[in-house]
Request: fold
Amino acid sequence: MWKGYKAHSNIRRILNKRIIQRDTAAGQLAELTPRQCQILKLMLAGHPNKNIAADLGISQRTVETHRASIMKKTGTKSLPALTRLTLMADWDVAG
Reply:
C-alpha cells in the first residue's frame, strides 16, 4: 500500500476531529446570552469582577452570578478551560 495514503487518512481523521471539537465548542458558546458574552469578553481580557461590575454599572454579585452561569452553560470549571474553549471555537472576542 502507498505510504502517503495512510498519512492522508490520518490527517483527514485529525481534521474531522478538530471540526467536531470546534462545532461543539461554538455550540456551547452560542447558548450564552448577550450579557454573558459581554462579561465573558471582559473576563478573557483579564478584568476582575469588581472592574467588570463598575464598567457595566451592575453589582459585583451580579457579575459573579453571570460568571457561574457561563461556566455552567459551557461545562468549564476554570478560566483557563473557558479560554481554551473560546480558542477552540474560534470565538470572536473583539466583536
Q: What stands out?
A: The radius of gyration is 18 Å. The chain is about 75% helix and 0% strand. Helices lie at 3-30, 34-44, 49-56, 60-74, 79-88. Residues 3-30 form the longest helix (28 residues).
